[in-house]
Amino acid sequence: MKIAVVFNEFYPEINDQYQTNLGGFFQSPENSELEIFDPIAEFQSIAESLHRSGYDAYILNLLDDINIFFDDFEKNQPDLIFNLVEIFNSDAKLEMSFAGILELMKIPFTGSSSLALGTCQNKFLTKQILSTFGLSTPKFRLIKEPTVTYKTDLTFPIIVKPAYEDASVGIENESVVKNYNELKNRVEHIFSNFNQHVLLEEYVSGRELNVAVIGDHNHEVLPISEIDFSAMPDHLHNIVSYQAKWEPKHEAYLTTTPKCPADLPSDIQKKAEEIAIIAAKGVNARDYCRVDMRLSAENKLYILEVNPNPDLSLDAGFMRSAQVGGYKSDEVIKKIVELALNRKGQISV
Questions:
Q1: Dihedral of alpha carbons 62, 64, 68, 73, sign
Q2: Residue 67: phi, psi to the nearest 5?
Q3: Residue 328 maps to which CATH number?
Q4: Helices (DSSP H) in the chain: which residue ranges?
Q5: pTM reported for the whole predicted model
Q6: For a FRET experiment, which of 227, 297, 298, 316 has its CA 20 to 30 Å from that of 111?
């Protein structure tokens, strides 16, 4: 069986240093700068994992050109797409579009459907859906356009986010605001730099939990991971900002340490697991997803986001929880493929 691991990283100068070998892998040259910065290594490692499980796997970078996919599909006719496309033409909202193309072409693929991806990309819509299932999220409001004033009934502190981004894009220490002037400045910053609606949420102080879920109709919750903020300096808010996720030399990155399994009372752990499954099913996430929550000082759980198709890097949260749960990384990748293959011929939801 032939599997194309498809992603979209617009780094042609790096992509050109890989040599394609159908049925094998792209190999990076020795002693290259890729050892320092290699955005393609994650995808290659998944292809290698699939190869170890007996699949004929190769990687394909779309490079912001959908014709690359069409040409490759016509030439190589893969049986399954391992879908790792998260952005297209610098627009995260187009993540759902590639999945939609696969659905129109009736090509089996891993991960969530276009509908689920689009739903979760819209933070405001996701919160509305979750509330219909009786799940708690921080109190929120949506600002659709710039105005002279931004009145809100939310209680400070408030966290200000772009409404249609993921991976903490647009979330920085300055996103947590304590008064109206800070709120106004941050809202205008989002409108100016991201050109999209702005989501306001009441900031919930407390513990941050990442609850990984694997499965399609029968969901399994993996050991819960916690982001430990105990080393965070006083001048930084206890949030997983963009810097905390993606800038290894930033103090926020260095002082946000994941702990898995999280040390939780049994009743809180059970409740978090139940909430995660309801949330995953509520937005139709499938195969693998992560539900991020806050546990308040009053021991109330609030859902921050539902993340379909989370990062599968070995050092990322989902794979960390899976390994603590007894899965080897190859077993996780193989299970995701098997879940997708089991849907072959079924109606995508």
A1: positive
A2: -65, -25
A3: 3.30.470.20
A4: 12-15, 41-52, 66-76, 95-104, 114-121, 123-132, 180-194, 242-246, 251-254, 266-282, 317-324, 329-342
A5: 0.89
A6: 227
